[in-house]
Amino acid sequence: MEKIVILTGAGISAESGLSTFRDEGGLWAQHRIEDVATPEGFARNPALVQGFYNARRVQAAGVKPNAAHKALARLQRDWPDEVVIVTQNVDSLHEAGGARNVIHMHGTLAGAFCSNCGNRWTAPSEMAVGEPCPSCNQPTARPDVVWFGEMPYHMDEIYAHLASASLFAAIGTSGQVYPAAAFVHEAQAAGARTVEINLEPSVGASGFDTYILGKASETVPHWVGQLLAQHS
Ligand code: OAD
């Protein structure tokens, strides 16, 4: 049996039309992380933060999964063992491409979260400042995304998957944000083979066993085709 754990980042959604963070002209070239992606930034200027995520939510609603998302869904469907997709992305393109049980470690744009009572619900396309929580009625609704300084979601589940992986792949991520950047080492410690699939080698690139460089829409379907051919 060969369980596969896949970590994806913004690069897999780039060809669908969503900006990455650290490429030239990416989101972090246009916005300061401290302003739009920290709890302190939200406390200081909730309108700016809601506006940033409202714009991203509208943008994400208008794009379609690309060949890379669809190929991973095919791998999940046709691989004889478990294929776990862990994403840092807050878009829903894996699901739109047919993937199941995607673990969103940085949350999703589709969700709203109440910082007062912990309630979660489906976010409207535009979240207003001071929007009341439908459960406790406090004006404490926020996007259900993980900000810098907050603990990513589902970490116990992710580490358990990494500990039983035979193959780990990181796709379209620059390897600059922890804890995701260290998953390759967790997987290696568990004896997994590791592969990086990215446009260019990531920051932590020396840690992988193999590299496949190129556009995700081309490299991922090719890689999936090879894996499935080996096991047919
Ligand atoms: P980055 O923007 O840091 O990295 C995107 C990576 O994708 C880069 O290494 C690019 O070379 C690569 N890339 C770009 N286009 C590609 C393509 N067509 N095919 C393949 N690779 C491509 O995005 P992430 O690594 O996802 O967190 O960023 C990680 C986290 O940092 C995000 O989840 C977000 C951000 O700050 C939070 O907001 C908490």
Helix/strand layout:
Layout: E1 4-8, H1 11-14, H2 27-30, H3 33-36, H4 39-44, H5 46-61, H6 67-78, E2 83-87, H7 93-96, E3 103-104, E4 107-114, E5 120-122, E6 141-145, H8 155-163, E7 167-171, H9 183-189, E8 193-198, E9 210-213, H10 216-230
Parallel strand pairs: 1-2, 1-7, 2-3, 7-8, 8-9
Antiparallel strand pairs: 4-5, 4-6
Helix pairs in contact: 6-10
The protein binds 2'-O-acetyl adenosine-5-diphosphoribose.
Describe this structure in words.
It is a single chain. This protein has a six-stranded parallel β-sheet with strand order 3-2-1-7-8-9, sandwiched between helices. Strands 5-4-6 form a three-stranded antiparallel β-sheet, with helices on one face. With 232 residues, it is of the alpha/beta class. It has ten helices and nine strands. 35% of the residues lie in helices and 19% in strands. Helix 6 (67-78) packs parallel to helix 10 (216-230). The model has no long low-confidence stretch (mean pLDDT 96). The site of 2'-O-acetyl adenosine-5-diphosphoribose has 26 residues, from helix 1.
**Rg, nearest Å:** 18 Å
Helix content: 25-40%
Mean pLDDT: 96
Look at the helices and sheets and give the structural class.
alpha/beta
How many beta-strand segments? 9
The number of distinct helices, counting runs of at least 4 residues, comes to 10
Please, what is the oligomeric state? Answer: single chain
- Element-by-element helix/strand order: EHHHHHHEHEEEEHEHEEH
> In percent, how much strand structure appears in the residues?
15-25%
Backbone shape? globular
Features:
232 residues, 9 strands, alpha/beta, six-stranded parallel beta sheet, binds 2'-O-acetyl adenosine-5-diphosphoribose
